[in-house]
Each structure stands twice: as C-alpha cells, then as structure tokens.
Design goal:
Layout: H1 2-36, H2 45-58, H3 61-67, H4 82-117, H5 129-158, H6 173-187
Length: 202
C-alpha cells in the first residue's frame, strides 16, 4: 500500500518536472525569437530559469530512485547474486538514507532563511522561498522511498527466495543493450514498402 501511494505521488511529481522542462523549452524558443528578430528579449529570463530549474532538478528524484534510473556503479554490484547482492544493496541504501537525512534539515533552513529575509532574484525580484521549499519536500519523499526500499532489501536479506517488492531490479548489460536497440529501431521512421532507395530510377 505504501509503495503504491509513493508511486502515485512520484509519478505526479515526475509529470510536473517534465512539464516544467517543456515550458522552459518554449520559453527558450520565445527568448531566442524575440531577442534575434525583434531585439526585445524577455525581461527577467535568467531569473525565471534560475527559479524553475529547482523544480525539474529535484521533483523527479524519488521517481528515478524508484525505477532504478539513477547513475550508479554496477561493475561490482552487477556481479553479485542472492543474499550477497541484497546485503550490498542494503548497505548502499543505508548510506543514502543517512545522506538524505542530513540534507533535509539544511535545505529546510535555507527555505526558512529565504522566507524570513524576503530573498528574491536580482532582476525581476521573484521570491525564492517557494523554489527553496521544493528541495526539502522532494528530499522528504525521497527519504520515504529509500526507507521502503531499505525494508524491501532487509526482507530479501532474510529470505532471498522471496519475490522482490518495492525495490528496483538490476538489469543485465545484454538486456539493457537490447532495450536500447529496440527503442532506437522504433524511433527511426521506416520507408514505405515498395520503394527502392539504393537505386536511381530513370
């Protein structure tokens, strides 16, 4: 139940992060057109980008942790099997829990400081406390995800024969390569049947 609830929240936050990236892409296009063609750049463009970057940088972090999409060193872990693998994953998750637990109060203090002092950007004076509040919120959700995964790994350490629950599963190198090849092949548009591109017709 907790895994499903966190998954629902993470998916929505990941969607928000994606929409922020898309909006910034549109804003960037508008900035280039206005600046190049009309000599009228968007006032405060740097401030808008600066504040928005926080959202798509951290909102999807828990989602990426859930699906195992983060960058990690698998040269050693990928060779482990059974209880040894789950012990290594447990140790890594404990370390991640410790780091995130330390970061949450510090990031919250930055939010409090910005709120109390009325911190804002330089050009158009956008208040920065909402963006700074995103960081401890996203890290708190990540902490919940890490604790769920830690429970899942401990369960597998005790009983390695059980079905993995609430933990990302490592993929073999061959499996990952096959998926990438399949996705690339699907993304390339296919020529209509009956055409011959290798021969010039008279």
């Amino acid at each position: 139940m907790a895994d499903q609830w966190f998954g629902w929240v993470e998916s929505r936050l990941n969607l928000v992060a994606g929409l922020l990236i898309f909006a910034l892409m549109l804003l960037g296009v508008a900035q280039i057109v206005l600046r190049t063609v009309f000599r009228a750049p968007i006032f405060g463009y740097i401030d808008i980008v600066e504040v928005s970057m926080v959202g798509f940088a951290v909102l999807a972090i828990s989602f990426v942790q859930r699906v195992g999409g983060h960058v990690r060193m698998e040269l050693l872990v990928g060779r482990l099997k059974g209880r040894t693998l789950w012990i290594a994953e447990t140790a890594g998750t404990v370390l991640a829990v410790f780091i995130v637990t330390v970061l949450i109060p510090y990031s919250y203090r930055h939010f409090e400081r910005a709120l109390n002092f009325g911190d804002s950007t330089i050009d158009i004076e956008i208040v920065t406390w909402p963006a700074k509040l995103v960081v401890p919120v996203a890290l708190t959700i990540l902490l919940g995800r890490l604790l769920l995964q830690l429970a899942g790994y401990v369960r597998l350490v005790i009983r390695p024969d059980r079905e993995p629950v609430a933990v990302p599963l490592l993929k073999e190198v061959e499996e990952t390569a096959a998926e990438n090849i399949s996705q690339t092949r699907d993304a390339v548009p296919r020529a209509p049947q009956g055409t011959d591109h290798g021969r010039d017709r008279p």
